[in-house]
Design goal:
alpha/beta, Rossmann fold, Ribosomal Protein S5, domain 2, 3 domains, 20 strands
Length: about 450
């Protein structure tokens, strides 16, 4: 009789092997190779069971569509990203860099929910209960309906849920909770998978919304197995520069709403505050026109954000000039420099070029091309653009200004903020837009 073979599979990329190895041969991840039978819980000689009548498959047209009701969390910017609020029975994963403010945001969500009569259970597995209490006292998040427990064992967490019977559960964080039913240390792939699957099952069975905090790796991706992002309903990323007070939250996955919205917050000494109108956050405060600056209007979801792009050009004795960018795509800046050289006669091959956005916001959409090009032209001529001018448009390699999405929305927002002139695809070619931006000289002359 032939001996049955056992297959092993990588939980990260799906690579298979006939024997167990410590490191995946495809993605090179350590400790992710498991027995396929153990990973799925399926016995090879499984027998079919009789399905109860109430669980029998029915035509999809006979299944009623229940409305998914959102209940507001009390923080408008957070609700905007979630698609209107928190859905009962949903599991939301919030990731971000250490110290960006994830725990502060969720503590504020917990206190707002408790003030509306919701019973909230906050599980802290990274800090002691007294530490979280001190933060809550500083930010004004104390409430009798907000229950706090410092636990790292999954079984104890389930016991706390049975005892408190919360209407909202927050776990900070999923990588620091461990289960005795799974091998490995807390934060390992098997532990994270077991903890997340158990909490999600509790969430669905009790119609209990669960907010999970997730750690990130050095490259910014969520730590743990990729399966974690597939299991949860919503994946949000909390980002921001530690040197500034601005924070942004974006939805990378949302089963109940859009994924192109962005929420703006500001870290203060009293906690975190939402910024409902961030229109002036990414513009300089200078009242005098300065060369090398141009304003564009970015679109994040249904929100228009005016962003000022700044450029600086300097001479250098080095044979290899520097190209330093911040907040914009470096490859697009390199492309725009080539287009300006070939189509507009702006020679910057032997100059240092610095391009940055104001306020620390990141703009990666092609609609910023025209603003970057005009800022470079302004810096090259050392001539300031009119303060009432804004630019939106994508630039092709042929020097053509291409239209971008939501053009009417962008122009309306620019007009609302006092920009009388908006250069867009109607300008035609890049050299025509430069001539319109510098009417006194009619364009950009070579150096």
């Amino acid at each position: 009789m032939a001996r049955p073979t056992t297959d092993y599979r990588c939980t990260e990329c799906g690579w298979t092997s006939v024997k167990w190895v410590g490191r995946c041969g495809e993605c090179q991840a350590w400790g992710t190779i498991v027995d396929t039978a153990e990973a799925t819980g399926i016995i090879r000689s499984i027998k079919p069971v009789r399905v109860a009548d109430e669980r029998a498959a029915r035509p999809i047209t006979e299944i009623g569509a229940a409305d998914v009701a959102h209940w507001p969390s009390g923080i408008g910017e957070f609700d905007r990203v979630l698609g209107g609020g928190i859905v009962p029975g949903a599991t939301i994963l919030l990731s971000g860099e250490p110290g960006v403010g994830k725990s502060t945001l969720l503590l504020e969500v917990a206190s707002r929910a408790a003030r509306t009569g919701q019973r909230v259970l906050y599980i802290t597995a990274e800090e002691s209960a007294s530490q979280v209490r001190l933060r809550a006292q500083r930010t004004g998040a104390l409430d009798d309906d907000l229950y706090l427990a410092a636990e790292t064992d999954l079984a104890t967490v389930l016991g706390q849920i049975d005892q408190v019977r919360p209407q909202l559960l927050i776990v900070d964080s999923v990588q620091t909770v461990s289960s005795s039913l799974s091998e490995g240390l807390a934060g390992g792939p098997s532990q994270v998978r077991e903890v997340a699957a158990t909490l999600i099952r509790v969430s669905k069975d009790r119609n209990l919304p669960v907010l999970l905090v997730g750690h990130v790796t050095k490259d910014g991706s969520i730590a743990g197995p990729r399966l974690l992002e597939h299991l949860v309903d919503v994946v949000c990323h909390f980002e921001g520069d530690r040197q500034t007070a601005l924070r942004f939250i974006r939805a990378q996955k949302n089963r109940f709403g859009p994924t192109d919205e962005v929420g703006c917050f500001e870290m203060t000494g009293d906690g975190i505050a939402e910024v409902t109108d961030p229109s002036g956050l990414f513009l300089s405060r200078s009242k005098q026109a300065v060369s090398g600056t141009c304003v564009m209007v970015a679109v994040e979801g249904r929100r228009s954000l005016p962003v000022e792009v700044q450029a600086l050009i300097g001479s250098t004795p080095s044979p290899q000039p520097r190209r330093v960018v911040n907040g914009v795509d470096s490859s697009r800046v390199a492309m725009l420099l080539a287009v300006l050289d070939r189509r507009a006669g702006l020679k910057l091959g032997d100059r240092d070029v610095y391009v940055s956005t104001v306020g620390g916001i990141k703009v990666t959409e092609p609609g910023a091309d025209l603003a970057i090009a005009l800022a470079l032209a302004s810096a090259g001529r050392e001539q300031a653009l009119p303060r009432t001018l804004a630019a939106v448009g994508e630039i092709s390699l042929a020097g053509e200004i291409r239209p971008v999405s939501n053009a009417k929305q962008r122009i309306a927002e620019a007009k609302r903020l006092g920009f009388d002139t908006v250069l867009d695809a109607g300008a035609g070619q890049l050299q025509d837009a430069i001539a319109a931006a510098f009417p006194a000289t009619g364009g950009v002359a070579p150096f």
